[in-house]
Amino acid sequence: MAVEQREHRWLGKSVKRKEDERFVRGKGNYVDDVKLPGMLHMAILRSPFAHARIKSIDTSRASELPGVVVVVTGEILAEHNLAWMPTLSGDTQAVLATDKVRMQGQEVACVIAETPYIAHDALELIDVDYEPLPVVVTPQQALEEGAPLIRDDKEGQEDNRIYHWEAGDAEATERAFAEADKVVSLETFYPRSHPSPLECCGCVADVNPATGQATIYMTSQAPHAHRTVFALVAGLPEQNIRIISPDIGGGFGNKVPVYPGYVVATAASLLLGRPVKWIEDRTGNLISTGFARDYYMTGELALRDDGTMLGLRVQMLSDQGYAYADAQPSKLRAGLFHIVTGSYDLPAAHVVTDGAYTNKAPGGVAYRCSFRVTEASFLIERLVQKAAYELGIDPADFRRQNFIKADQFPYESATGFVYDSGDYEKALDLALEQLDYKGLREEQAKAREEGRLLGIGIASFTEVVGAGPSKDYDILGIKMFDSAELRVHPTGKAILKLGVKSQGQGHETTFAQIVANELGLPPQDILVVEGDTDNTPYGLGTYASRSTPTAGAAAAVIARTLRDKAKKIAAHLLEASEDDLDWDGEKFSVKGAPDKAKTIQEVAFAAYTDLPEGMDAGLEGVKYYDPPNMTFPFGTYAVVVEIDRGTGQWKPLRVLAVDDCGVRINPMIVEGQIMGGLTEGFATAAMEQITFDEQGNCIGANFTDYLLPTAWETPSFELHETVTPSPHHPIGAKGVGESATVGSPAAFVNAVVDALAHAGVRNFEMPVTSDKVWQALHEVGLAE
Ligand code: CDP
């Protein structure tokens, strides 16, 4: 379906977010707001050890505490074949530990009690006898000869390797390196971080003992997929499971995996015949739920002396924790990491990736990024900057020289992506112009003479979002289409139901705008419903910026289908031929007689009252949309920093972003998404990292140790746009939710490196803390 070339009434309009009416008044309805009659409360006992054999669990003291209804252990679950569950990547994960614990914070037992306080008090009365085992905390250790075998529960698993995966053409890449004048390499690490949504995870499971109907209110970014997993795990008939995701206080990929708490609460409700609520605390969320990143990467660029890129070789090792549990398209073991060729016309590339088990929480979720694109983008943008210094070419010129040019699209990358569209030079030019790049370089040189250290960092990223086309993308075999169901009521008001699920991205507003634009109803007359599996069509949920490219497209297509039917009805009402009607975005009128017209509201009424002969009543339909390709948003980010030579502290002076996500539905919402991503990019570059000691203790189990940026330290942002519509999306939109997280960390690090590049500094590992910078200043003789 082509992009329609007509004036958009409702696209590109910063319509105020409908959902904010309830959010800013504290009237949202989150899982913890759900209170059912007779509801019990669950608390989870977590392992203090990262790796230990469980010799015994004695629950007798806890069970005797008044108010405790039952203490659930893995042994009890095993009797119902529920001790282990499948993950969304086709691995297995313990629901409650039976044989061993394999990470600190692992779920060992659950107390179900009359109040949450009693449930938490009873945890202290459970006696677990652990025999500590040797701990594996890095993927390098995990793959060493003789490393302790973490997943000895899995038949045929003889070491800690989860996967080995390659993309691109090894031979062509070898040839490119053989021909190269110069090879530049960079070794780097993208640290483990945590999505840290404001609302932790939780559920209220309500299984009706009389009907067997299970209603589960759940913090889920993918309620339909979760219902299917529940049907598979619990063996419950799928029609008896209803998952409702009410308002969600941020997801960022953290609410994609299925967590043990959901499963135990549901099993307990099934066994007890009463509703059971589980609300995770902050430490539980930080130490046990979906982490992100944790990638060790080495990249090598083969170059001609004149700066032409000939080839790229990449090796990557991923720390997945003790289970491979992030939602991952099954054909793409390391996600979309092979987009590592970025915005560059690289004739050859070869990517080798390995994933390893360690004694940590399962990780690798799509945290504001499309399946590992953040790591890939960071590597190429850091490597390109280093290569520019080694070649003695300005980093901006070097990028421009090697960009895929605007007339090369659609462009097939060396690792097999077909980029739908792009104009990278335009975005770079706009950034440089807005920055006054030339002037800034002069200022930098002058500042240096005065003993001040300024740095200018650039990153020109390409994202790949909108998973995805069914030929390549599935989760557990379920194709990654998405859906929209639209019904126009007789009074011309509509309800739009989607398979995706907003966690704060503003879907209630933007998807209403899409339908409004196609069907001529004002957005405020269109109610958008998501997150109830009984009342929305099947879809794979919201993560990895997929909602606009998939469900957004489905909404546009179904609205057009309804408009086609509306036109037939209008022709009947106007006693004209369909071909004689014009559509102005709100009404149909007879060509040459604009007064003879019917509004879409009048037509909607007629759909129930006055139909052409033989036409079915109603104005409604459903569309399952299988996208023909991914969408490829892009942009250039530029950061200017100054380093304090006395302390090593660096401060962003300017953060400038040029984004291109095709047609913007709601510019204000898009800018909000970009600001969130830039904040996250800054946080990763400056402060966020979850570390572990050699016993596998998680350092970063609370917000005192794990630093999230506040408004105080977050810099202000200058936002700009270019518009290159996606040629295959019905309204020309590309996803945007993740772009800034993907694009910006490299720009921040590049800026700090740039301030010291003249002294030979080429790299900083994230987070770029002031002590690392001070150390470097000291080594190159610039410390004060
Ligand atoms: O899947 P998710 O909603 O996280 O990401 P997205 O599809 O990139 O959309 C994020 C928000 O930005 C949604 O409310 C979109 O409708 C909106 N958006 C937009 O207004 N214009 C675009 N071109 C892309 C997204």
CATH architecture heading of the domain at 34-133 and 195-288: Alpha-Beta Complex
Low-pLDDT stretches: none
Mean pLDDT: 96
Structural class: alpha+beta
- The tally of strands reads 34
| Strands ordered across the widest β-sheet | 3-7-1-14-11-12-13
User: What's the CATH superfamily of the domain at 34-133 and 195-288, by name?
Assistant: Aldehyde oxidase/xanthine dehydrogenase, a/b hammerhead
Biggest sheet character = 7 strands, mixed
What oligomeric arrangement do these chains adopt?
Answer: single chain
Distance between the termini: 62 Å
Shape: globular
Percent helix: 25-40%
How big is the Rg? Answer: 27 Å
- Reading off the top of the CATH hierarchy, the class of the domain at 34-133 and 195-288 is best stated as Alpha Beta
What's the total helix number? 19
What is the CATH topology descriptor of the domain at 34-133 and 195-288?
A: Aldehyde Oxidoreductase, domain 3
Give an overview of the whole structure.
With 784 residues, this protein is of the alpha+beta class. Among the domains are: 152 residues, 2-Layer Sandwich (Aldehyde Oxidoreductase, domain 4), CATH 3.30.365; 194 residues, Aldehyde Oxidoreductase, domain 3, CATH 3.90.1170.50. The chain is 28% helix and 24% strand. It is built from 19 helices and 34 strands. The protein has a 7-stranded mixed beta sheet with strand order 3-7-1-14-11-12-13, with helices on both faces. It has a 5-stranded mixed beta sheet with strand order 9-17-16-15-10, sandwiched between helices. Helix 12 packs across helix 13, helix 14 packs parallel to helix 15 and helix 15 packs across helix 16. Bound molecules: cytidine-5'-diphosphate (CDP).
